[in-house]
Amino acid sequence: MSTYKNFTVETDADGIALVTWDMPEKSMNVFTMEVMDEIEQIVDATVADSAVKGVVFTSGKSSFSGGADLTMIKSMFSMLEEEKAKDPASAAKKLFDAAGRMSWLWRKIETNGKPWVSAINGTCMGGAFELSLACHGRVAANSKSVKIALPEVKVGIFPGAGGTQRVPRLANAQDALQMMTTGQSLTAQRAKAMGLVHQVVEPAELVNAAKQMIKDGLKPVAPWDEKGFKVPGGGVWTPAAAQLFPAAPAILRRETGGNYPGALAILKCVYEGLQLPFDTALKVEQRYFTEILQTTEAFSMIRSLFVSMQELGKGARRPAGVPKTEFKKVGVVGAGFMGASIAYVTAAAGIPVTLIDRDQEAADKGKAVSEKLVADSIGKGRMTKEEGEKLLALITPTPDYSALSDASLVVEAVFEDRAVKKAVIQQVEAVIPETTIFASNTSTLPITGLAGNSKRPDQFIGVHFFSPVEKMMLTEVILGEKSGDKALATALDYVAAIKKTPIVVNDTRGFYVNRCVFRYINEAYDMLIEGVPAAMIENAAKMAGMPVGPLSLNDEVAVDLSQKIMKASIADLGPNAVKVEHMALIDQMVDVFDRRGRKNAKGFYEYPPKPAKKFLWPELKTLYPQKKAEDVDVNTLKQRLLVTIALEAARTMEEGIVTDPREADVGSILGFGFAPYTGGTLSYIDGMGVKKFVELCEKLAAKYGDHFKPTELLKDMAAKGETFYGRFDPYGEGKKAA
Questions:
Q1: In the chain, count of helices (H) and strands (E)?
Q2: What residues act catalytically?
Q3: Residue 423 has pLDDT above 80, yes or no
């Protein structure tokens, strides 16, 4: 048999070929054109070899496969752009053929005449699970590492290599639609219960069990290729389907605001496909997949949530030539909720942590946060008792600063007060060696000012976490004016070690994410003051694609924190830094009504005891004369909320605070959930077209205030027909992706 770069093929005495996918120099198997070519060669070779009775397909890595390689996805979009420029008429046809390559290769496996069994040993996502579905048998390991999913909808597309046709022919339609329209991950047991996996066995028995299926006479025919096949639940012409399919688009619209064309295409593929012969159904899926690939949403989401996230995670902004830091120990000073949570995620990455506070009791209280998180994880089956004990053993609480003397990095997470932070900086620098990097987790105080308290400002940097730290995937790395390459590289190495996505931001009040967040919240203040009903503000935000409304978000970050930030802004920048009406609203909320947000169970919302759900504070409508709902244009509300955020992102680019559009986009989605279907703040502008965006800004400014006025940069870009990704090319010299 031929030799392959990415696979080994070993045929045993029973005539079963074990195909092991193990890509050299990659931590995870991914689909590339080369991989697909080799799979096709393996299919042809095993069919031609009379000694081969069947094939077991598995992975030589700890995971099975994460799906498609980002370079393959990028090349498909590049091909589309090139073809559109040369011959628009043939561009869609070429994209259609390229989009169908994987689908028809999996169909070739399914109809090759010899039984194939997929032995799933770990994460099995996207095209990898679609390949498994085309195999005649599927065996999964009984392991926490097994996560089975078709998550394509999360990056703007859908399972276009047979997923929308095979899943609803194996599972009932409702479960199939739920799985694909949400992109949810399944455990091995859940996949078996749905009928997507035949067996779940202990990891050591995985390959043997897969081989046994073939020995037991597994038929090399898919169920839908058998005469008389019936879809689970009876297909689309049943009383149950008559309830499901008319309601499904309405449910989807409720969940997505109609913003995700890929999700709607799943419904169409399933509904139409289940009424057709299988090969015709695959053609229908291929047609919709080609259509969705050409949408702005798919392009923007794939670029930001797939390509850019991977590039940033792999160190796209890391300075070249600086040796990688191996963290023997990390110090965290400040054992309050944020510091304690930072210690937890550090220990969860296997790094020893020294957690410092003013006395042993306070430090122990900080470690108790990790103890609770560990207990919760064990209770939910996400962690074993042994794993929990190992994690907690890595956290050492102490009031003794000298315990930081061998730390590679110290993260300061004390109270947001310049004097308190100055004292901590001096105490830490008195004991750490010159090679140690000092990082401040401040969320409001400029890093350059804090670094003025340091004896070595080139070793000083900001690392801004978001709460809850263990769940939020974004970290802002903030450069002070004197922060050096070693500080930046170490900070990025640390963020990578704790498995978060970094964005690099230059120093400014509020950095990047909080500047955008407070624009969002401030626009809601304007709407409230205008008399827009609070429920309309919150619902318009969700319809625009935001995960939570601005008033709900303000409750989460704390209304009294907004008050403190406003007062600090006025003190530092003068009375015009904050609108008088905004200050009056928040002073009234905090000082008159003691409504501080979720933390005291009353803010813009009421928080009754569980299990009751929160609801908007009824008295909000008494604060300002209310408009009638029919006099408020919901589309305008949606535009105002998205445009004000996007405008702030554009300002940060113009000011040089953010220098890479990938970071503006990824930061906005991971930091506060900016309408993911847009691809992020700058992709929202680019997707609309800068000229059209400027016109929209001018229209909104005329009616709702100067804060909507387009910036000089935007006007210049509109005049020149530029985009952010063109003008601020992230792949330009010195910014090559890793």
A1: 32, 18
A2: 464
A3: yes
